[in-house]
Design a protein that fits this description.
single chain, alpha+beta, Alpha-Beta Plaits, 4-stranded antiparallel beta sheet, two-stranded antiparallel sheet, 2 helices, 6 strands, 20% helix, ATP binding
Length: 112
Amino acid sequence: MKKVEAIIKPYRLERVKEAVTALGVFGMTVTEVKGYGRQKGHTEQYRGAEFQVDFIPKVKVEIVVADADANRVVDAIQKSAGSGAIGDGKIFVFAIENAVRIRTGETGESAL
């Protein structure tokens, strides 16, 4: 099993959800996060004062899938979240040793 973790722009979340759901993947965890990479923040004005915003709001999407589905999920996220601009985000893929469905006790891929 693989865990696909993507940091994306918040307004791209619905497109990512639709793209992943179209693959038959229905479970995902979404967390609002803040961070920066090459974008390094930006300057904003509020009531005439200029200030630096170092951490930019993003969304972290976590999806655990079977090994065979991981590349398709990564491709779907990349296509649906990408705009070609700096700050589109990153995708990370981790190996998952085991999963357990608490309600039934199922383990491994059947727990997904």
